[in-house]
């Protein structure tokens, strides 16, 4: 498989890893859009949100829980933060392995920016 995130999980490509458990890996984004910008990924390869199955519900919940935990640890949970998932090309997805962006440390506007 030629998946960038799977290669990071398998330690074939280096990343600035900030969290890991048996199901989830989180690392700092190499092109941050905020003072803190982490990517949270499942260790199971799922290409897009459209590929989720009911059996994946606990895994997606673990991604959300990890985002909240990391926001608290980073010190911006109370001020606020952004959690974002993109799906497919028009949704802004560039790596086809589901992932959650956790961004904090600045004020965010809507639409995303």
A few lines on this structure:
The active site is at 99 (tele-amp-histidine intermediate). It comes from Bisbaumannia pacifica. The protein has two helices and five strands.
Outline the fold blueprint.
Elements: H1 4-9, E1 17-20, E2 24-28, E3 36-42, H2 57-74, E4 81-84, E5 100-104
Q: Write out the strand line-up for the largest beta sheet, numbering strands in chain order.
A: 1-2-3-5-4
Rough shape? globular
C-alpha end-to-end distance: 33 Å
The SSE string, one letter per element, is HEEEHEE
Which runs of at least 5 residues are low in confidence (pLDDT < 50)? none
Structural class call reads: alpha+beta
The CATH superfamily is known as HIT-like
What is the CATH topology assignment?
A: HIT family, subunit A
CATH architecture: 2-Layer Sandwich
Number of helices: 2
- In round numbers, the mean pLDDT is 95
Class, according to the CATH hierarchy?
Answer: Alpha Beta
* Oligomer designation: single chain
Overall number of strands: 5
How many structural units, i.e. domains?
1
* Residues in β-strands, percent: 15-25%
Helix content: 10-25%
Output the radius of gyration. 14 Å
Largest sheet: 5 strands, antiparallel
Pfam families: HIT
Active site: 99 (tele-amp-histidine intermediate)
Motif (Histidine triad motif): 97-101
Organism: Bisbaumannia pacifica
